Amino acid sequence: MRVLLVLPLAIPLATGVVALLLRRFRGAQRAVSVLGAAGLLAATVAVLTQGQVEGIVAAQMGGWAAPYGITLAADALSAGLLVATALVLLATMVYAVFGMDAERERFGFYPLTFLLVLGVNGAFITGDLFNLYVWFEVLLIASFVLLVLGNERLQLDGAIKYVGINLISSVAFLVALGLFYGQTGTLNMADAAGKVQAAGLSGTPMEAALVSLFIVAFGIKAGIFPLFFWLPASYHTPPAPVAAVFAGLLTKVGLYAMVRVFPLVFGAPTGYTQVVLLVAAGLTMIAGVLGALVERDVQRLLAFLVVTAMGYVLMGLAFYTELGLTGTVFYMVQDVVVKGTLFLLAGLMQQATGARRLGQMGGLYLKRPFLALLFFTPFFSLAGFPPFPGFWGKLTLLQAGFQAGQGWLVAIALAVGLVTLLVVAQVFSVAFWRDGPAEKAETPAVPRATRWATTAPVAGLVALLLALGLWAQPLYDLSAQAAVGLMNPEAYIQAVLGS
Amino acid sequence: MEAILAVVIGVLFAASFYLLLRRNLLRFIVGLIILSNAANLVIFTMGRLTREHPPIIPSDGHVPPTPYANPLPQALILTAIVISFGLLAFALVLVYRNFQTTDTLDTERIRSAEPPEPLEARFGEEAVREQRLPA
Question: How many domains is chain A built from?
Answer without folding.
Answer: 1
